[in-house]
Amino acid sequence: MSTIHFEFNKEDVSDLVIMPGDPLRAKYIAENYLSNVKQINRTRNMFGYTGLYKGKRISVIGSGMGIPSMGIYSYELYKFYDVKNIIRIGTCGGYSPDLKLFDVVLVDKTYSDSNYGFNLCKNKSKLVSSSNILNNKIEETAISLGINIKKGNNHTSEVFTPYIDSYNPIKIIKKYKCITSEMEAFSLFINAELLGKESACILTVSDTQLDKRVISKEEREKKLTDAIILGLESLLRL
């Protein structure tokens, strides 16, 4: 059985999924961290792979950019392919002055003005939680690997905020205690809550208001080593 957005069958995908936004990042993770890799999806160039990480079967599948794209792909994985756990691996902007470029952040809750939840299932929540089960496992794994992570709330924006000249997140920061900003976690968490699944989001800081350096496209695709290893090792321990 395949769906509109995936060409593979249920048996082709693991119930443990790493989900980067960029399909090329999915390709990079599969080729550099998994063995016995099989490409399971090419539809719309949203690349997906299944292979072994230290003997455990794991899938890596892109989500695309934005709440709707993540909403589609994670919903189908949860609903039609019996996926139980999805860890999003992505980049983010840093709201907190304590965050530096390439810091790793574990999202606790994410806030969004999006109507995704209401349109999907009449969920009016604007602040939704990730999975305590997955987050606890990620935190335990980070300690065992010596990877320093920071945990906090996130802002899932529907617009790429650097494009907004007048953008000022101060109200969001104060009211919802957001330390980062990205564009996908909200729909992932909504879908997991709706369908009784587990979701988590590990972010790497790629931009901050205090550091004007610009990270290259190649760095955005490939320089997420700590986050990638943390995600894979956490799934290994489930």
Task: Walk me through the structure.
The protein contains 8 helices and 10 strands. It has helices spanning 23-33, 67-80, 116-121, 132-145, 170-176, 185-195, 217-222, 225-236, and strands at residues 16-20, 35-41, 48-53, 56-61, 85-94, 104-111, 127-129, 149-156, 178-182, 198-208. It has one domain (10-236): Rossmann fold (3-Layer(aba) Sandwich). The protein has 238 residues and is α/β, with parallel strands linked by helices. The longest helix has 14 residues, at 67-80. α5 (170-176) links the parallel β8 and β9 (178-182). It is globular and about 45 Å long. The model has no long low-confidence stretch (mean pLDDT 93). Helices cover 34% and strands 29% of the residues.
